Amino acid sequence: MSTTTPSSVLEAEHREIAAAFTAFVHRELVPLAAELPEDGGMPPAELRAYVRRRSAKLGFYSGDHPEELGGSGMPFSAVVMLHHAAGRSGCPLAPYALAGSDGPSPLLRQGTEQQIEQYLKPLVRGEATRCLALTEPNAGSDALHLTTTARRDADGGDWVLSGRKTFVSNAGHADFVIVVARAVDGDGKDGGPTAFVMGMDVPRLRIGQRYEGMSGEELYELVLDEVRLPAGAVIGGEAGVGAALGNGIDSLSRGRLVVAAMCNGIAEYALELGVAYARERKAFGERIGAYQHVQEHLVSSRAEVEAAKLLTLACARLVDDGVEAPENAALAKLTSSETAVRVVDRALQVHGATGWVRGHPLEFLYRYVRMMTIIEGTSEIQKVIVARAMGLG
Ligand SMILES: Cc1cc2nc3c(=O)[nH]c(=O)nc-3n(C[C@H](O)[C@H](O)[C@H](O)COP(=O)(O)OP(=O)(O)OC[C@H]3O[C@@H](n4cnc5c(N)ncnc54)[C@H](O)[C@@H]3O)c2cc1C
Predict the structure, then answer these.
(1) Is 216 touching ligand 1 by the criterion CB < 6 Å?
(2) What is the pLDDT of residue 315?
(3) Which CATH class is domain 246-389?
(4) Residue 349 clears pLDDT 60, i.e. is over it
(5) CATH code linked to domain 8-107
(6) H or E element that contains 77
(7) Which of 26, 133, 297, 332 has the fewest CB atoms within 10 Å around its CB?
(8) Is 381 in the pocket of ligand 1 (CB under 6 A)?
(9) Strands 218-229 and 282-283, sheet pairing
């Protein structure tokens, strides 16, 4: 494909840093990925830790965090381009080179000085990982319908957390966990959703069921059986009680744009595979790319990927300009994740049985990309956000 595409206009500003990241992926991560099992399960934890630390050393991991926290102070739009480049590389280790759902949580940016030192800085440096326990068996999309409670002792001191969390990524390897629970004060008054941070080794917190995802992801159930925490475990201290919703809005928007960018990169990679195959493979005496039904798969994909990419890059640029509207991120995440699912499906179709066989990159991507319309809020929930912003419902 031509390198002068409409999206290259928006890419120009951060092209060099994205090119440096891509060079790192090809130089250092692609050879390591060659050792991974062909069916594309999750890489071993030690390898993920190595990739994270190496990338942090080179200044890519946690790119948008300020230098005083150990980051590189990049604009958010540069970070979005790195996530695009990770998806585009086709290297299964590349996503672990960039901070994601196990990395520095924007919630911790609202933390007290002590929380920033103890939790945020090691995450930014890639030395520690965390998990976020928000979803519950009966509170998924409706995430604030929480039944996990944090009851405050009558003397206003310690908190006692009880409940079950489910589908928590990285809980089996994390150093600490952020738990969102409903605060209840001494006289039973509901103080609202509140984020707590604690080590994974805190007494009476245990891992329950383990779930394995379609492409080898490990998710876990977490059981909080009267976990006792000091007042200092509330993220942001006293001001953080009941503030998880307010503090979470911006972080969700950024997380959604990062997922959108990764999806666009994956879609571009899948499209490239589809185009290359259609140019080579012959059927009925012709290259299959000459057939209009095959062109339809590839040209529609090209149009949709370019549109999703432009939307995502534009929304990221707006974040750098101080505009962090949740509906923008919702539009980008909805468009990019749905596009990536379609494009991977079409690219596999163009490959026929070749793409369907275990070990082919498209076979893995077909399973991997499917989670993208569910994580960070389902497609339907992105539509709910946009509908509300349009004054509907
Ligand atoms: C790979 C992966 C990683 C995850 N990691 C984490 C994690 O680290 N921490 C964590 O806390 N959670 C995590 N989750 C859970 C994830 O956040 C939830 O799966 C997601 O919020 C959806 O909730 P649910 O699965 O309970 O679906 P439900 O909320 O039960 O939704 C079922 C269906 O109903 C639709 N629906 C629900 N409400 C509405 C509505 N108002 N309007 C229209 N449609 C609606 C949904 O879109 C969906 O199609 C992870 C999930 C996956 C797949």
Answers:
(1) no
(2) 97
(3) mainly alpha
(4) yes
(5) 1.10.540.10
(6) helix 76-89
(7) 26
(8) yes
(9) unpaired
